[in-house]
Design goal:
496 residues; transmembrane; mainly alpha; EmrB-like; two-stranded antiparallel ribbon; 75% helix; disordered C terminus
Length: 496
């Protein structure tokens, strides 16, 4: 990649900086899913129930989601070198707290501290990759970022299962600590300030509205699986969240120098790309949660083996992300997105007819096809959207896109899990059959469970078809070279 110049006019090694960014952020993003198969072990270790242990993931995702909108202000205000070192240091403190936890509250606090670091490091990675590469190489750059954003969460459950089976739950955190320490130390020499910054005051009202709004909304959607859509808790948190998010957006649109600039939606290309990547997240994350449930509850697999079944798909995404990134630089996003969404739809359709006898290899192949399709869409669509924005809005575009995807992931999971639960419950045979015809009840219960999975997969197919339609609205060519010509003044009202 050769030498490049930082904001102080000094040359630096872009290859080393990118490698450091990818390794550090991989460690942080991996933590989103690394506990998913460790819950039973943690429940025994700390004597807590299922709904309590779930907070290790729910709380993590909540804080992560709250931090992403704040990241735009941080990226524009603090030197990228010190912001990265700060984010990785906060993540390290959280990881050490988790590793040394002697009680469940201590473990939970560690997870929440980790999430603060992740909520900054992931948007910072994307913003830096979009800035330090020339416009015609951004697809390749975001393809590399896709390895982190796509592969790390996908291998989390498999890695977690292996560690739990062979080592201790503390090793889930212990194995990351030395890597993060090396990344932080190396950052003092390798990391550079590559993003232009300007001092702007922190708008406390925006922080409060954003935190309550997105926090409440994400919590509401995460509660649907346990409490159902009709629950007072779910409805209250969703309504409160929606009101505060609307107030937050209204405030941003009235500010000359907004905390999070929603004017990025004035770009049709950015809006189409953001909608596409959000619907793809709904199709991906929901199914990622439902397939392991099917493998464990219907086919009787262990948590580790169910995670292993999804590993081929995860690796497919990791391998394909850089390749589709290069393809974007040559062909643009539209053809890639249409082909990817077609593969995602084709790969999801057979799940609507799976039975308890469906072979594991069949599931592995179908899941790999789905992830191949997602890899063709996710980063190319994101890059196309970002290329439509002027440089001074890249950090805002990244934060808006990531926030929208986080909410979409929660919505997708909530819808699929609630459909699965409700259909299964409604199809279950009557309790009296259990005593009069135990075999008939067992058979009926399996059929009811399968009906629930079939219904959930039909919803996922609906998401895939919707995303396929949206893909046709992307522009046909790679117009990334236009970005460098756009001056900051095109952002009306962006100046203070």
């Amino acid at each position: 990649m050769g030498k490049a110049i930082d904001t102080n006019g000094k040359p630096y090694s872009r290859s080393l900086l990118v490698a450091l960014l990818l390794i550090g952020t991989f460690c942080t993003v991996l933590n989103q899913t690394i506990l998913s198969t460790a819950f039973p072990t943690l429940m025994k270790a700390f004597d807590v129930n299922t709904s309590t242990v779930q907070w290790l993931t729910t709380g993590f995702l909540l804080v992560n989601g709250i931090m992403i909108p704040i990241s735009a202000w941080l990226i524009n205000t603090i030197s990228s070198k010190w912001l990265y070192i700060g984010a990785m240091s906060i993540f390290l403190v959280g990881t050490i707290l988790c590793w040394s936890a002697i009680s469940f509250p201590m473990l939970l606090i560690g997870r929440l501290v980790q999430a603060v670091g992740v909520g900054v490091s992931m948007p910072l990675l994307q913003t830096m990759m979009l800035t330090i590469f020339p416009a015609n190489k951004r697809g390749t750059a975001m393809g590399l970022a896709g390895i982190v954003i796509g592969l790390a969460p996908a291998i989390g459950p498999t890695l977690s299962g292996w560690v739990i089976d062979n080592l201790s739950w503390r090793d889930l955190f212990g194995m990351i600590i030395p890597i993060v320490i090396v990344v932080i130390i190396a950052s003092f020499w390798v990391m550079r300030s590559v993003l232009e910054t300007e001092k702007s005051p922190l708008d406390i009202w925006s922080v409060l509205l954003s935190t309550v709004g997105f926090g409440s909304m994400l919590y509401g959607f995460s509660s649907v699986g346990d409490d159902g859509w009709g629950s007072a808790k779910v409805l209250t948190t969703l309504i409160v969240g929606l009101i505060f998010v609307v107030l937050f957006i209204w405030r941003q649109l009235r500010m000359d120098d907004p905390f999070l600039n929603f004017r990025v939606y004035k770009s049709k290309e950015f809006t189409v790309a953001a909608i596409l990547s959000s619907v793809v997240m709904m199709a991906m994350v929901g199914v990622e949660m439902v397939i392991p449930l099917y493998l464990q509850m219907v086919k009787g697999m262990s948590a580790f083996h169910s995670g292993l079944t999804l590993l081929a798909g995860a690796l497919m995404m990791g391998v394909m992300s850089p390749i589709t990134g290069r393809a974007f630089d040559r062909f643009g996003a539209k053809r890639l997105a249409i082909m990817g969404m077609f593969l995602l739809t084709v790969g999801t359709l057979p799940f609507a007819w799976i039975t308890k006898d469906s072979s594991t290899l069949y599931i592995v192949i179908l899941y790999a096809i789905r992830m191949f399709g997602i890899a063709m869409v996710m980063m190319p669509a994101t890059t196309a959207g970002m290329n439509a924005l002027p440089m001074n809005l890249i950090s805002h575009g990244t934060a808006v896109n990531n926030t929208q995807r986080q909410v979409a992931s929660s919505v997708g999971t909530a819808i699929l899990v609630s459909v699965l639960t409700n259909v299964t419950k409604n199809q279950m045979p009557a309790k009296h059959v259990l005593t009069s015809n135990p075999l008939g009840y067992a058979n009926g219960a399996i059929n009811a469970t399968l009906s629930g999975y079939h219904a959930a997969f039909w919803i996922a197919i609906g998401f895939s078809v919707l995303a396929l339609v949206v893909a046709f609205f992307l522009k046909g060519s790679n117009h990334s070279t236009h970005v460098t010509d756009v001056q900051p003044e095109t952002d009306k009202g962006g100046a203070a």
